[in-house]
Design brief:
There is one protein chain. By secondary structure, the chain is mostly helical. The chain has one domain. Helix content is 78%, strand content 0%. The chain contains five helices and no strands. It is elongated.
């Protein structure tokens, strides 16, 4: 369990490099003005490191008592990675 958490969180830390590039470019969404969808898009991109940090802490706390819950919580940041991968794959 400890190895799984270490490996997955190292991959999340590496993905933060790509996230920073996407986040810095996502400010261009406000070029046409501030709208609800633009703001939600920017906030969803900005929430990724918060999700990585929060889920990592929660998974380490839950790893001894509830192993399956810790695994599920640790997989939550993959939602962002799957969304970006889906956009890249289908566009």
């Amino acid at each position: 369990m400890r190895t799984y958490l270490l490996v997955s969180q190292c991959l999340y830390a590496i993905s933060l490099i790509g996230w920073f590039l996407v986040w810095s470019l996502s400010f261009m969404v406000f070029d046409q003005g501030i709208a609800l969808w633009n703001t939600l898009f920017f906030l969803s991109i900005s929430a990724y490191p918060v999700a990585v940090l929060g889920c990592s802490i929660a998974a380490w706390i839950l790893r001894t008592r509830r192993r399956r819950t810790a695994i599920a919580v640790n997989l939550v940041p993959l939602i962002w990675i799957a969304a970006v991968g889906g956009l890249i794959l289908f566009s």
